[in-house]
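Reviewer comment 2.1 asked that we show a complete input and output for one of the modelled complexes. We chose the MRU case, as it is the one discussed in the main text.
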Amino acid sequence: MQTLQTTSLRVSENQLFILDQQALPQEKRWLAADNVALLVDHIHTLRVRGAPLIGLSASLLLALLAQRGLNRDALQQALETLRAARPTAVNLMNNLDRMKQALAREDYPQALEAEALRLVEEDKQLCDRIAEAGSALVKPGSRLLTHCNTGGLATAGVGTALGVIALAHRQGKWVDETRPLLQGGRLTAWELGELGVPYQLIADSMAASLMAQGQVDAVWVGADRIAANGDVANKIGTYSLAVLAHYHQIPFYVAAPQTTLDRHCPNGAAIPIEQRAAAEVTGVAGSFGAVQWAPTGAAVYNPAFDVTPAGLISGWVLDSGVVTPAQVAAGAFAPDNG
Ligand code: MRU
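Response of the prediction step:
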């Protein structure tokens, strides 16, 4: 299979590797991901994460397995297992729908490879276009707040919301720590450091007081799924930021590629939300070790994502350009407009 390298995916010598996002930033460790059970485990443990990257890694694995001689039935089974690996991000389903079409072709090994590589290339271009469209909205000297990680680690390209921020590259950005899994504190802080973009890390609960002090000019987040009415599912804590931004009259932008749009999902209530293990809330674990601070057996509620209603969003920055609230209300994301 053709070699390939992005910030967090690598195909070389007929192997698929992922950059272990649980080990970052302490350690830059590449892990093999060349069978379905392994990749599903990497997705469950967030070693592979970010809506676009999950879809791309699953597509590349299918292409690789086809190159290694897996027959159509086995590939179909693999596709279904991968499809169920994470319920909220729709990029995975969208990418695998395209792979399914390639699998139906006579020359499916070649078709799957070509389609997976095309998806990677397209994602890079989508990110570039989002960054261009979004950076035009960033006023000079803006202090931006972002949540979770939406950069090169989460995509094949420069990222979505973080791609906008990196391109705009102005002084003074705030990065939410992003409890419980700390994608902001571990990954976004690491990526911005690598890019030389200045930032200050805050605990999630500090955003409100910063906004009250006039220290945040705009909030930029990514998305795991955008419903037809404009509601957005994204990392837990996004909704709180949207409510806070609305109260403080701060623009709140969502940056995402077309692959994140689910025109057949009518609204946020119809988006399945992944529930995760209690241990992520009762303590913390990583390459630095593990600690538990809550009493053993503490009752826990741990949804990985929340839904921000369209009414709190100032603009949806897609690779096709900026979509306004008025356009969304007029049906820009409706199934018949696709
Ligand atoms: O659970 P994660 O870390 O995969 O959650 C990621 C997010 O919520 C991102 O904002 C989203 O997937 C977009 S990544 C370009």
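Residues 46, 49-52, 89, 148, 150, 154-155, 159-160, 183, 222-224, 234-235, 304 surround MRU (CB under 6 Å). We note this here for comparison with the apo prediction described in Section 3.2.
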